[in-house]
Known about the structure:
378 residues; Copper Amine Oxidase, Chain A, domain 1; signal; Cu_amine_oxidase-like_N; mainly beta; 2 domains; seven-stranded mixed β-sheet; elongated; NAGPA; 29 strands
Amino acid sequence: MKKFFSSMIAAFLLAVLVPSITTHATSYFGYLEKSVNRSYVPLRYISEELGYGVQWNSAEQSVLITSPSSSIKLYVGKDQALANNNLITIDAPPTLYNGITYVPIRVISETMSIPIQWIQESSEIHITTTNGKLILLVRDKSYATRPSLKHTTQVYTVFDKKVQAEVVAVDLLNPNLKVKTAWAKNQKGTVDSVANIAKQQNATVAINASYFDSNTSSSTYGIPYGDVIVNGAHDSKGWTDQASIYFGYDKSSKILPGSELRSFVKSNTSLVESAVQAGPRLVNNGIVNINPLGEGFSDPRILSANAERSAIGLTNDHRLLLVATTNMTLGELAILMEKIGAVNAMNLDGGGSSGLFYKGSYIANPGRLVSNAIVVTN
Length: 378
């Protein structure tokens, strides 16, 4: 029976659904200094992304940042600065961290009159420029020591029911990791094991992704339901309005309604590397929120059955959660995803398709071949 569902998980990096937004595939990250609750950006970001003049004085340990109409001179470790040649006191002086000079973005935005916005739920700085909007991921110093991949097996209690979950946490801020979608045998309309898809992609992690025609006697066996984008190629155009997650070329990822993603892809085709629809949505902005009927789901195997489940989630600190469980309903899965820290999450194809591969072997065994997968390469 065909399943007309969708939820989009797409490529790997950061972009927002507004046509005027511009994004860049750089390795720049801001960082949060918790002691003063201030966000810093790399000095090179100021020159290369914002286009300001930057002059570094190694003797003074100072930096002069200039635009056609404004200037500010900052000193590493000092709380005084020259803004348009006026002496001011700042609460967040420039700092050196891991050999990189970081400068406080707020005082620069005030001096240069550039609007900035802090997005708490995704730890992003949005900077509005004459050319559009830039988005910078912000991390705290704990990023330097956290693992790039982490697998846990744990028993959780949901509604007095004990369930075991296999969870792989992927650090989306790690520049050595790449998350993408992949076709079975590198071709739409074919099927293969999750393990073989991982091996074809030299992937460390893989999880089954979209719904597809699993009827082996069907002429459309292996064809996915909903939309799939692989390596930037929009190979399937079955757009619906179910929950969506995408991964972009700028290390962003978001779970969205299909209509919003459709609009974004139409205006920014070159920014989306991977996408795949599944669904329904499980968690929205930290709150369990499922509306499968509203997203077009009617199959009781999806809505109410206890079954093997696969899910994907995003955390506030930019981790991707790949999850496989057994004997759970959709509602129980939503609560589980919230328990393990997902602020946004969605369901993937489940039942016999549910499979999670990690470092050379299955940690959750699928019962059938699948059409496509989400993979993590190193």
